[in-house]
Input
Amino acid sequence: MTEKSTKYVIGYDLNDQFCQISYFHEGMEEPMTREVLADNFKIPLVIGTLDGRWAYGQEAMHHMAAEPERFCDHLFSRAVAGETVAITRSEVPANKLLEKYIELSLSDYPRIDYLVFSVPELTEKVVRLLKRIGRHIGVDPDRIIVQDYKESFCQFMYDQPKELWKYEAALFYCDKEMVTAYMMKKVDTEYSADNTTFVMVEEVSHAKMSELHVTFPVINVELAMEADMRFMHFVGGVFDKRRVSSVFLTGEGFESNWYPESLKVMCNGRRVFLGNNLYSKGACYEAARKSSGRRDGPIYLDESKMTDQVCMKVRVGEEFEWFPIISWGEHWYESDCEYEVLLENDDPIELRQNSLATGESKTIEVDLSGLPDRKNYSLRVLVRATFADENRCRITFKDMGFGEIFPETDFSKEITVVLGGSNEQFSTLS
Output
């Protein structure tokens, strides 16, 4: 067991077959991934009852074949679908079973400072489910992130030597059904300044394993050679006219060495890595950055993220800065926020809206006439941003008074900011 005083950050890879847990705490040089067996990080996504107690993972999987009525698998998809599961003669909501599974799997980490879930595909429903579970196990809601595998790949790559993603970085994912190729690349915009790094991942190709004549386990030498030749052709098509710095192979399909000739093509001028804990480690790297307050991580862009940033001009010491109210690279349904600001007077507040998709920038002045006449930063205003949908954000400015000296008034000003939304996608960037 771990020390109860130790604060951990966790990267949690979750899919319908297993979870993987990578963890990090102060004093560690790199995140570690929890081993189930030697060189095996996969904890089966199975839970049930055994001798009057909860059992999960390897133990539950071991007993499930003999007593299937006591156990439940495919927890993730069942929880997302809102199913109720019959287990030990009881009807139990699948989301409660998933909650118990996650709680048990994280019991060795009693103090979790930051928790990042990594899942194959992201939806608003998945985000709300996992954030609710994170809150249940005692993690501050503001310190829980849910992201997809592609974003975890970006977060992983950002903490690797820069020469590995000087150009594009390739990710090949292979299971028993499909091989899929992705490319990560930096996105150059006029806002790519200072420490801001914009990145995106594209799916560039895929093929069914049956099309490559690969069947598992790979035991027929002649068929394996044919599959290798077909896969080599597939790899060549992926790399055609691309400058690729590094290649990462993940998924159970790459666990047996049936592709030696394809590997030679991948290694031609590139570094190649094989592993199956990339997503949990990428999530853990991000958790560590967030926990420490570092702001140098990449801004991951995809078709589900906002293309606009809206900043408010504020004074910090003797200098003016642009403070983001709405941040690009975020999901609109997670971006409601509020801040308190102190104003010197009732001059208009200046906002700036920048668009990644169009490159346009515009200034918005918010008229605050009608605020009480208070001087010397005794005007305390609540700035609240709430999203109606991906295209519209309401920003409200409300007088909060100033302690017992100045009671709050009914002053309130609201503006609606129109965002790029789904009609201006990051895929238009290059």
Summary: Residues 422-430 have pLDDT under 50 and may be disordered.
